[in-house]
User: Fold these one by one.
Assistant:
Number 1:
Amino acid sequence: MLHAFVNSIDPYFLQILVNIGIGITLALGLNIITGLTGQLSLGHAAFMSVGAFTGALLTLKTGTPFYLNLLLSGLFSAAVAALIGWPILRLTGDYLAICTLGFAEIVKVVFLNLEITNKALGLTVPTPTSALPMPVIVLMVAILAIVASVLIQNSRFGRALKAIRDDEIAAESVGINIARYKVQSFAVSAFMAGVGGCLYAHFLGYINPSDFGFLKSIDMLSMVVLGGLGSIPGAVFGASILSAAPEFLRFMSQYRMLVYGALLVFLMVFRPNGLLGGVNLTDLVLRKLGIRRHGATRNQEGSQ
Amino acid sequence: MFLQQLINGIALGSTYALIALGYTMVYGIIALINFAHGEIFMVGAFVGLLMVGVFKLNIFLAMACAMIFCMVLGVVIEFIAYRPLRKSSRLSALISAIGVSIFLSSLALMVFGANAKGFPEQAFSSRQIHIGNADISTLQLLIIGVSAALMIGLEFIVQKTKIGKAMRATSEDYNTAALMGVNVNFVISFTFALGSALAAAGGVLVGMLFNAVSFNMGLMAGLKAFAAAVLGGIGSIPGAMLGGLLLGVTEVFGVAIGYSSYRDAIAFAILVLVLLVRPTGLLGRKVMTKV
Amino acid sequence: MTALLKLDNATIRFDGLVAVNGVDLEIEKGEILALIGPNGAGKSTIFNLITGIYPPTEGGISFNGKSIAGLPPYVIAGGGIGRTFQNIRLFKELTVLENVLIGAHTRGRWDLTGALLKLLPQVRREEGRLLKLAIHCLTQVGLAHKAYEQACNLPYGEQRRLEIARALAIEPVLILLDEPAAGMNPQEKRTLLEMVRNIRAAGVTVFLVEHDMKFVMGLSDRIAVLDYGVKIAEGRPEEVRANPAVIEAYLGKGTMR
């Protein structure tokens, strides 16, 4: 019955919605390592790629049900992240970023040369048969991603990540094992990227290692930066805009990367908190309802 | 065979060295990885191409034009995208640099199209010279010669001139240099200009070496040059030269023994290895952070 | 009585510069020990040695009888040594409360699973406990009323107090205060004096570095003096004040009153 409902929606509109859903998952994943923990990952497309190919191969070669595929893709990406994260995450900011970029390139080249991933020809992925239609699954995953992000942000785990982002030496001085938390954060990020990749593979129907290059990583980064690094509504917002925009701006498609590039510079120089960063959604909503929370005086007087 | 590959490697490596120098100088002075540096290399190649193809200049004049154009470009980029962020977090500056990089390569794509363009025949007619059982082309000689000349020139500027002293002071200790009266903004702009000029020269030379100039040559070359800079020790000028040469030779030998499809990955593998095993590189200094 | 913290011929060399040279120092449980000395004497370096930021080039450091030399900072902090920093290192973008909650990190144990299973009673209980601890520490430094302010919006003196609260949240056995009175006006210093006395009264041993002599004299049980990385004097405040070597080290700059 749900299938019938979904099929009655305009497929073009549906495609945009699914893209947004996948984008949200990817952006929220990147937000955890880059926004929350402050470690710039320029190669996150690699984890998307790992997840995409894992999921695709599971569907093609084995008969595992789709939900399990999703989970396994995420877990495998997380495992890869933990493995390479352990040595890499001890590097400082700039070096780490370049290293992740290098890693992503290595993954791309390796996948382009492996038999199992069909080298440069890519893989065609059949639509999975599942009780729920694909768009609904994507929606559910996106919602789970949002919920998980919110839960993480306000927990002891999330606080440790934020501490690492703000001042590693101070974080260490209160007993936080920086290396361990960075790797865990990286793994969670990769999990979400992997799940997103798996969804992407099954929805698009065809994947090629070249799809997951530097530009894809920048796509993901732009979503998070646009909305505001570290902000969950920001990531959702950024993902929505940038996933839907290519459709609406199809006539401008050659300008897309040009705009992205200028946008990144513009945002960093004039509004580094992104469009929604620094906005606390709960406070905003409550204030509109006339309720002041905690007598909060955010950013009123500057520091003396 | 060994000698031949060595020659090829040195020629290629010289170009990496030229680009790597820009990275290392900028990093040494403001601790920023100028992500857009690779695109300056690309722009230099296109300018050189235009000068030769459209204005029929000879190769040396074309290179000079490319260098001047890119010097200005480099200074402008620093002014717009990096200077406002000097007090901000490193992450912001890095993202801004990425933005510039994407902007420039997309611009090039729009203006010049996706196909690689080659240098016209008369740009530089290359002959082969025999040395032992290897051939070295006059083009390769040109590349090695020009690179060497530029690097010597750079060393001279850095070691023997007043501005060079100011550069070294600023890269040692930014704040103290400013307090001592060094016009830090000017020094930084000058550093960008120098680095960009070298990258532009590298661009023209590489364009001729592979006879291909395209909008996306910047990213790959930039990343490889960065790997070279890290290998040699980021912040060290001789390190960048050494790293560039080593990387060029390793890449050529790697392809020769059969890893040609992994060609690009070689540089990244080196990069990752160096960062993990010896992050200060071959000639870099260990920096202690004050707590 | 075995000392709580013991530096045994502790030495640290940075590329030829000897920052700390064969320092023997013992801190007794429950005391307030101050470390003074001219600028650049190596005082903060000693702190960094103790908290594990640099390992000693020679010599040993032991805490409660067990060696801690070479251990990473987070392990040492987890063992009960808290610290503040000479240049304030707060989590600027976070709230006052979050800063101290992070300080209480080692008092909890639920990580990712705890985050995702937030509603689990064990997790809820732990969060409640951490919150209570954080508010207690904030009350100790008199900042509980500013719990939801952003840390960077606090005036300088309060930021220093916040750093102390954060260190207290470790529930430390020993707390290292690095120039806690720096930049404070006399009124703030009086408040701080009381605060440190209360901290000691609550059972925490205090080791502090300070430049303000009046502050140090009025507060400490014992004082150690460092000059060019070498300990040149140690004893009760009156003894140290009269010590000719100490006076000479300061070259009569008028800091001794």
Number 2:
Amino acid sequence: MSGFSLILRREFALAFAGGGGPLVAIGFFLAMTSLLPLALGGSPERLAGVAPGFAWLVLALAALISLERMFERDYEDGSLDLIALGPAPLEMAAFAKALAQWATTTAPLALVAPFVVAALGGKTALWPIITAAGLTGGLAFAFLGGIGAALSLGSRRGGILIAVIVLPLFTPPVIFGAGAIEAFGAGLDWKTPLLFLAAYALAAAALSPFAMAAAARNALS
Amino acid sequence: MIPALANPDRFMAFSRWAAPLLGALAALLLAAGLVLDFTAPPDARQGYAVHIMFIHVPAAWMSLFVYACLGGASFFSLVFRHALARAAARAAAPLGAGVTAAALITGSLWGKPTWGAWWVWGDPRLTSVLVLFLLYTAYMALDAAIEDEARAAPATAILALVGLINLPIVHYSVVWWRSLHQGPSVLRAGGPSLPPVYLTPLLIMGLAYLTGFGALWLVRIRGEVWRRRAAVMAMRAAA
């Protein structure tokens, strides 16, 4: 357990020391939000209609942009070799890394998302479901994203390759989350899609550390 | 059968005659299927658009079947580090992408006269098949991005196995979020609902696609084996 918390603390320290914590992803989120009315026109009704779905989609995209740092930095400076050699299994280290990725990037985005929806004129009453879907779905995005980040280690083009690998895997959580938000707004049963989202996120959290560790070991070999 | 063929020499000897045999069988089945297809009467509701079904439905079946082959080969490649399994997985990917693209394109052409739209975003199965196509693309992109073959083999295998989770979602999405798309009508409890005039050519076309894929797959695996032998010979010549 000490190895796990050590890696977790290290990830937090690194995220807030050099990477600016969640600020980069939040900046991306806000920049995309300010571009939306420019692309779609300033009509309040139209913006209000797309606001929840847009916020949900850009949350998924913003979860993507910081993935490249997740393993690549440790791979390049040799820390990943040390972690792999250490007493803690690499699967556990991968779990800690993905958890830290969630806590420092995707979870803050989930807290910002209701404000983005409100700024675009969407229903403010949606905030509990947007935050809940963002926090749950963000877990799936972080763990699935970690697979892409680990697989693209040592390849020539990291960032775009991660996106190509990970975005198809994002489909089920995006569907479930959007379904939950839409059902909540329409006063329908929103618990079922949210539970599906939670199930998907938990399965991703349980299984993807093995894929991440296998991919990282392969890159280190 | 698989352990016997795991030996590359035995595989090459087997595929030397199996590939053309399957190809000839595919051509015969395709001819028979097309003749039965075009002699079938137009559908009462869809008219002649029903003929698209015989091209589209087998392509959609194969898009899933080829991914299952890719996943199976990737499993053997990852667990047993078998070079021939890796060659099989690598050879299957473009074929799967091609057959999935065919399913998407013919489905789109079929959707226009019957549903009135080229693409219906509200339908989960369309989206899932598109995701399947993107998974094939991701596999090929990752394969192309890692130069070192010793590293590319496990990495692509992991990706294929992760994507394999998508397969049941594609299949059960019809049941989960059914909307516009027609429900399953061939493989369902209580027997097929298609009349035999349509079912027979459809099944023959399915077999034609299956044997055609088998032939092309074997040819492509042979190509991979030759490529590897050529690389070894080049290394020896350079040393």
Number 3:
Amino acid sequence: MKPAPFEYYAPDSIDEALSYLAEFGYDAKVLAGGQSLIPMMNFRLAQPSVIVDVNNIKGLFFIQPNENGGLRIGAMTRHHQVEESKLVADRAPLISETMPQIATVQVRSRGTFGGSVSHADPSAELTAVSVALKGSFLLRSQKKERWVPAHDFFVGLFSSVLEPDEMLIEAKFPALPERSGCAMVEVARRPHDFALVGVAAVVTLTKDNICKNARIVLLSVGEHPMQAQLAEQMLIDTKLTPESLRAAAETAAKSDIDPGGDIHASAEFRRHLASVLTYRALDKAFARARGDG
Amino acid sequence: MTNNKNISLSVNKVKYERSVEPRMLLSDFLRHELGLTGTHVGCEHGVCGACSILFDGQPVRSCLMFAVQANGHEILTIEGLGTINNLHPIQESFIEAHGLQCGFCTPGIIMTLVPFLEKNPNPDETEIRHAISGNICRCTGYQNIVEAVKIAAAKMSVVKSGDIAHT
């Protein structure tokens, strides 16, 4: 229950951090909020020989407006800072709604936006929310810099496209079109515990209340956040009704995902939750897009 | 160890300078290096909440931080909250409502509640239960803890104490 020994570096600039990652590669691990990495180290599931602690890099802590109504969140911005941010509430209310559902208050004190995303836990709310909001992540190494859409970032269980010499620097989210509504709902055994299933939904309507765009992303039902594309296609260019939302929710649960069972929930129960929660998320998002949510 | 790091930090308003191995958890540092055994260690993987302390005024799990990360920061533990003769209102309330039995979870719960009650002077039961959801108690069934928090909120709205340096 104690971590194995490691070499410790606490750079105060991004460049210095990237130089350690370039030097040590797979042997190094970036320490952000530590709320997942340190438990793994305590259990010795992770035994990195080098820790690059990025908590002293001031340039990674920020929440800023992006051009045209979008939002930028620095990788080390802590969950409680995102939770309390008025700018986030104005520009990405889906993120604000999600924050209190993430883990416990003590974890939100330390945990970071970029850390949660980089860890790529399929039950992490911010992974699904980032995909639902068409966010993208800035990854930087000493050699290059690239923006990766959230949709392409997560590739498997706890794995992303991040290379060992790369670090996630910031996330950006475009402004939502007018007449858009969002919702994030989840079920956990205990509030703030890992979600058995969660659903993030974004609905955009035309002036005549036709569904212009719908995004449905589920968490805890696969190896990474799962976009329910068949369900989305059923809604786009149609007039939304409780029946059509329910049909889309059922399709999401039956055809878009293939959840596994474990001691926390059977596959069947997860499918059931996926259907119920997708409906609730769509219903809420639809109401908000109409302006009466 | 050759790769020890020197750290300087404030714990309960006292300044300490120590040399620590980077892998030393903050919880172990408080208990073993400083002898502040009021911070309890339960699960050591961020589930039980027994080791909760205030780090720059924020409740954190001290088993999910390395001592070396506390360099230059300010920590408050249960020992810095009240004294035997001058208990913090939350501590008094736990006695009055019988909000503990074995007491193992109590320091972590109380430290979590300090900033919560400062931000929410008049919480309802749901808010209280959410606030302590990161702390596990295996004795009380939480009922009396919730009662204790209600009493503490009433006391603290009268006496503004428990001054934590917020940064």
Number 4:
Amino acid sequence: MKGFAPLFKKEIREQLKLYRLVIVLGVFLLFGLSSPLTLKYLPDILKMAGDQGMIIQLPTPTAAQSLASYAGDIGQIGALVAVLIAMGCIANELKSGTVVMTLSKPVSRSAFVSTKLIAMSLTFLVSMTIASLVCFAYTVWLIQGSAVLPFVGLNLMMGLFLVFCLAVTMLFSSLYKSSLAAGGIALGVIIVQGIISAIPVVGKYMPGKLLDWGTNLLTGSDKTYWWALGITIVGIGLCVYLSQRFLKNRDL
Amino acid sequence: MTAISTQGLSKYYGTVKALDNLNLEVPENAVFGFLGPNGAGKTTTVKLLTGFAHPTSGLAWVAGEKVGDGNLALQSKIGLLPDVPAFYDWMTGREFLHFVGELHSLPPVEIKKRTEELLELVELKKAGNRRTGGYSRGMRQRLGIAQALINRPKVLFLDEPTSALDPLGHREVLNLVLRLRENTTIFMSSHNLSDIERVCDMVGIIDKGKLITVSTVEALQKKYARSIFELEFMEDAGPFVESLKKIPWLAEPAIVTGNGAPMVRVRAIDIDRARKELPRVITESGLTLTRYELSLPSIEDIFMEIMTNGDKR
């Protein structure tokens, strides 16, 4: 992994200079704040908006509902943001020619690829941690009653799923010079695995099941998806390996 | 010692032969000019020699390192200025050079020193703290040259190094090349013939992926010498031209007016005899000679002849 340290430093600076951390944090914070707020005040909002004669009975909101709603938003919108952030990570460098400038120095392809994924993952994990802390604090304040450990577990599952989305997008970014093509195909793959994850028998192998596992932790269900966890971790590694292979094998 | 060596290096894109069986030896500390029209295979050759393209067949060695298989030792011995240098737009010129120094694992003190030296050398010291995204094409070209030099490369590849430069920048880059030749082998691809003529001591001419000729500039000029004498006199040379018409080893004597004074041009049928006897003929004419020159062809003349007729000589 020759050149890892300077490349990693450059990638981290890029996350900050191009406002990627600010953007991802802003999106995640929006959901972290809105989930408990919406759940707490939805009955009041409906009361104010509805007809005088109409009565809508909503169950009393629970902390688990608030956190699960937040997790659902992050699982969907977070995956989309991951694709948008990662789709140009290599494709744009292939297109502009900066990849030649960098790789004409004594640095390995694996360092070039892995530092990108690690830096993007850190952006997402830091943003998610801050947004989750805010969501948790707001939930405790507005709705009360929440367990810390299941929420930590949920975040770990969400984090891993988002890293998987980043890795898949990066893989296609190493294949195409067009970031739109890379993003489009990656999004397609993520959607398809999401659909398959809803199918019995095969669904339990899909990375999307990690989100279900996280929600199960909140609701107290002990249903686990170890296959999905293993396949996600292997999938991330495979994406990194294939990305650097593609870069090695292609003419730049 | 050989700095660049290739054996049967070929690159095909489908049925298109971008480079066909290149056998080349470039000695150390030579400035090698790689000439050819657009699409001749110059950039493909640079990419193959720097490990950015995979050959269909053949082998290459640069600075003693075998090219290919992710040989990182090669990258630490070379410098590359691509045909269109690209930078991270959010970095300043100074930051980019610093980044490149780190990629070469240079010590921090050396990075700082080299960065300032090179910014000075390419005259970007004032613009060093500006983002590269705001640089002009010429500034990008000069920063591209600076980043290629940071590791003091043994072999420097310059792909069309003067393509985006104004006349002043153009001259500065060529002067820079001349200064670097003392310690570095330079492989310079260009279709700018006067650049090659000015700084290169070896030339390779390529067309349609095939190396047509490779030689020193002097040998090439000798080989393609046109055997034309140019003579200038203080007096009217009309009667002298008439006398030349009677000499069997000369042909087509004429008075021509170029940009300056009228001169006599005459082609030698037997160049060796003309070299020996023409000075005597001039002396006997009683005219005052102000210029006597056996005109050598320019690289442009040679290039045009090779492109038209091939290397038939």
